[in-house]
Write a structure and sequence with these properties.
The chain has about 625 residues and is α/β, with parallel strands linked by helices. Strands 2-3-4-5-6-7-8-9 form an 8-stranded parallel sheet. Strand 2, helix 3 and strand 3 form a beta-alpha-beta unit. Helix 8 packs across helix 9, helix 13 crosses helix 14 and helix 15 runs antiparallel to helix 18. The longest helix is centred in the C-terminal third of the chain and has 22 residues. It starts with 5 loop residues before the first helix and ends in a 5-residue tail after the last strand. About 50% of the residues are buried.
């Protein structure tokens, strides 16, 4: 998980992470009334596997470590599970030698077989250099949360590294009989996980491919990065002002991996170039619309090097993220992970990922760690990335994934009026028709930054141009806080024009955060001959939302701690809480509709609301 501390320490123009996208979509005002029309008679084919709930940071079945086997099993068995990222670092990192490593490869067998049986697709992360294979023995850590230098260093023997990968692939693909994907290393563009050079990583990838293909010629192998446009040591080194600059992008590790693979053969196997079965990146962005831009660019790179569309593009870490600005030591925390905001973000992300052409995804993460962190007096709701709190209470985003698990296997047509905040996905078959919808507005500060960069680039203004004209982050902060008027700034008129346009977008986002939407929904050409059941589920600030009752929940676990029985009773108590009507996925309406091929209604959709309407055939006349 990338730390990206520059996002925390720099809030405005020059030093922060800004998104890219379509300026026209930014400047379009939100519609007062949104229309969603579902045409059940128009089959669009198989529902993408992408939309199945995927999850990351699965480590194994050790009950003493997070995430616990309890929540692993719960997710896998309650969801229509998709991609599941499983790291073998616990096997590699703790092994004493090669034979000891091989002896423990069966640690994940039961978990993997259960995932596959339920239609899931495990991706195995091969990362963390074992001490007996590392070129460095140092146990120092580059940063507070990083692996040790021994664990992040290249191998001292690349042939032995190849043998390690071969053993992993041989065990799962051959001995266990499952066809898995193998991701070579975690975020090698970050010093926290890879202390070697780019050339070292590319060599590591080559020998990993060699080992995988020796074990199974059909093994699926790929590499990945923390951030698609970044070079090495990406922390703070990403300049989103230049993400449309082809020359700048050619310094990215992902681009170099594609070029290296195309130019490097494997004579041992008769390959003229290295195969790429998939590419991985991670994404923590305020605006899900952004996803289309890197996907398009990566496809272009692949095509230029002669690789086809059969190369899968995967994001196996993603979430919303605007970290706590006042404490760099808690950089991964964002309280919105715990609220309806996080739930709506997940639905919106999957909608835009599908539109943008992503193939597979897994959300980060399953757990939120332990109760070792206190934030504003809270130990459960601390803004951790997981879909469970530290004591295993489900968050609203968990319920979003339950909604996606209720979708049918065939997609049907849905049309939505021009409103970038409201999204919808429709599926159906002869017995059921469903519509999943959300009202998501990303935060106004990010919208301002995004608009400022895009509008500036359209006029040819660079970051350096603003600096030369004396524009400072403090001035921009003053504009957004209302303490400074744009007209008062001692800057040229052409810059004021851009700032005014960006500020209008900021204000529009502020309104959208507070204003419910009126949504007119219609279902046409329903496949039912007679009566059908209508059910509606909702996740918002008052429904299916453990954060809405956080004081009650915090009190329960704090009392268990005071009584000294937390570890005995906490997870049993969490199971009770997860059945509270305020916490579990809530059905807010159910009724029977008599003999209708069409159905219409108007709903009021609160900001950051996510819901699903399910229509089910009953009592058909013969």
């Amino acid at each position: 998980m990338p730390k990206r501390l520059f996002l925390i320490l720099s809030l405005y123009l020059f030093f922060l992470s800004a998104d890219s996208g379509n300026t026209e979509s930014l400047t379009k005002e939100t519609e007062n009334i949104v229309t969603i029309r579902v045409d059940a008679g128009k089959d669009l084919g198989q529902t993408p596997y992408l939309l199945r709930p995927g999850i990351g940071n699965i480590w194994g079945p050790d009950p003493s470590e997070a995430p616990s086997p309890r929540i692993q099993r719960r997710f896998i068995r309650e969801m229509k599970v998709g991609l599941v990222r499983i790291s073998v670092e616990r096997i590699l990192g703790t092994s004493k030698n090669y034979d000891d490593f091989v002896k423990h490869l069966n640690l994940y067998d039961e978990l993997i077989l259960d995932i596959v049986k339920r239609g899931g697709s495990p991706i195995i992360l091969i990362a963390q250099m074992p001490r007996w294979l590392s070129s460095k023995d140092s146990q120092k850590r580059p940063s507070g949360f990083s692996w040790t230098l021994s664990q992040t260093s290249p191998p001292k023997d690349y042939e032995l590294w190849s043998k390690v990968v071969s053993a992993i692939v041989g065990h799962y693909n051959k001995e266990l009989g499952v066809d898995l994907r193998y991701e070579i290393w975690n975020e090698p563009d970050l010093i926290e996980f890879w202390s070697g050079s780019a050339e070292d990583y590319l060599k590591l990838y080559k020998y990993a491919v060699l080992g995988a293909k020796r074990a199974d010629i059909n093994a699926r192998v790929g590499g990945g990065v923390a951030w698609w446009s970044a070079g090495m040591q990406a922390m703070g080194g990403v300049d989103e002002w230049k993400e449309t600059d082809e020359n700048y992008l050619k310094n990215s590790l992902l681009y170099r991996l594609i070029r290296y693979s195309n130019e490097t053969g494997l004579s041992e196997l008769g390959y003229k170039r290295l195969p790429i079965d998939f590419l991985v990146m991670h994404m923590y962005e305020a605006d899900p619309v952004y996803i289309a831009m890197p996907l398009k660019q990566i496809r272009k790179w692949l095509k230029e090097s002669g690789y086809g569309n059969d190369v899968k593009l995967i994001i196996d870490e993603w979430s919303t993220w605007s970290p706590i600005p006042y404490d760099p030591n808690l950089s991964w925390l964002d309280i919105r992970h715990d609220t309806e905001y996080g739930a709506a973000y997940a639905a919106s992300f999957l909608y835009w990922a599908d539109k943008g052409g992503l193939d597979l995804q897994s959300f980060f993460s399953l757990d939120s760690g332990t109760r070792g962190i206190t934030l504003k007096g809270n130990k459960e709701f601390i803004g951790g990335t997981g879909i469970f709190t530290p004591s295993e209470v489900i968050k609203p985003v968990y319920n979003t994934f339950k909604l996606f698990s209720m979708l049918q296997d065939r997609r049907i047509n849905v049309e939505i009026s021009a409103d970038r905040h409201v999204n919808g996905i429709a599926t159906g078959d002869n017995n059921r028709v469903s519509l999943l919808f959300t009202n998501f507005t990303y935060d106004p500060n990010s919208a301002f930054r995004k608009a400022l960069i895009e509008l500036s680039q359209a006029k040819g203004y660079s970051k350096e141009y603003y600096q030369s004209k004396g524009v400072t982050p403090e001035q921009l902060q003053g504009v957004l806080s209302g303490k400074i008027s744009i007209e008062e700034l001692p800057i040229p008129g052409e810059i004021k024009e851009v700032l005014r346009s960006a500020f209008n977008i900021y204000q529009e986002r502020l309104r959208a955060q507070k204003t419910p939407k009126s949504v007119e929904i219609s279902f046409d050409n329903l496949p039912f001959k007679s009566n059908f059941r209508y059910e509606r589920y909702i996740i918002d600030s008052n429904h299916s939302n453990s954060y809405a009752v956080k004081e009650r929940i915090e009190d329960i676990f704090n009392k268990l701690e005071r009584q000294g029985i937390y570890w005995e009773k906490a997870f049993e108590k969490a199971e009770e809480i997860n059945q509270w009507p305020e916490v579990r996925l809530q059905k807010v309406e159910e009724k029977i509709i008599n003999e209708a091929r069409d159905y219409r209604e108007t709903l009021t959709l609160n900001p950051y609301a996510t819901g699903l309407i399910l229509l089910t055939r009953i009592d058909d006349k013969k």
